[in-house]
Write a structure and sequence with these properties.
5-stranded parallel sheet; 8 helices; globular
Length: 205
């Protein structure tokens, strides 16, 4: 079973919400407002923002009201169908089904691209392809906020610092930190805020 088949199966048997955020239900996705990477981005009304691997697009409700356009991208159509229902009140949203490797959007389109809790499920080839695509679709002066897994916790490929320096031009990299899951915000709030008050090509590691 490949990763797409796994997520489609979990959605089909009703475990999708719990698997995306451990212990959560659909009601949690509808009612909770826990912090995500997107919470700390310096969003502006003119921005077009993409979330890679959005799943049911939990972060959308914190992003869409603040920007011109939110685009959620995922390879699971079942998850995107749920995302559309959960975020039906936002007219400036679009959900795009992709192949898990490429982003079917034109070059230099987004002001900010972010991704959380997704790269840890990717192989090295998938990781390289997605990073290349993120570089392609984000504007030259845009911002990128990505959460990468630490090697000891990764199910898949955990990119080393050298890989990230290869993927992103050195002048785009502000700082590397270990990003701890947002259920412990007392540990990381100040570090995240310090990095992403100015979203210009921050990489959360």
């Amino acid at each position: 079973m490949n990763i797409k088949e796994y997520w489609d199966y979990e959605m089909a048997v009703g475990r999708g919400y719990d698997k995306v955020r451990n212990g959560w239900s659909k009601q949690d996705f509808e009612t909770r407002s826990d912090d995500t990477i997107a919470t700390y981005l310096n969003l502006k009304k003119r921005y077009k923002v993409a979330e890679i691997g959005c799943a049911m697009a939990y972060a959308c409700k914190n992003v869409a009201p603040k920007v011109k356009e939110y685009v959620g991208i995922d390879f699971s159509q079942a998850m995107l169908d749920e995302a559309k229902v959960l975020n039906k009140d936002f007219a400036n949203t679009k959900f795009v089904n992709n192949d898990g490797l490429t982003i079917p959007i034109e070059d230099d389109y987004f002001d900010i691209v972010f991704c959380e809790l997704c790269f840890q499920h990717m192989s090295e080839d998938q990781c390289r392809s997605n990073i290349a695509e993120i570089n392609r679709v984000v504007k030259p002066d845009g911002g990128v906020a990505l959460q990468f897994p630490m090697p000891r916790t990764a199910d898949g490929f955990a990119p080393p610092i050298e890989f990230l320096k290869e993927a992103f031009p050195r002048e785009q990299i502000k700082q590397y930190i270990h990003y701890i899951y947002v259920s412990t915000p007392d540990i990381v709030d100040s570090e995240i805020k310090q990095l992403v008050d100015d979203p210009a090509h921050c990489i959360l590691f």
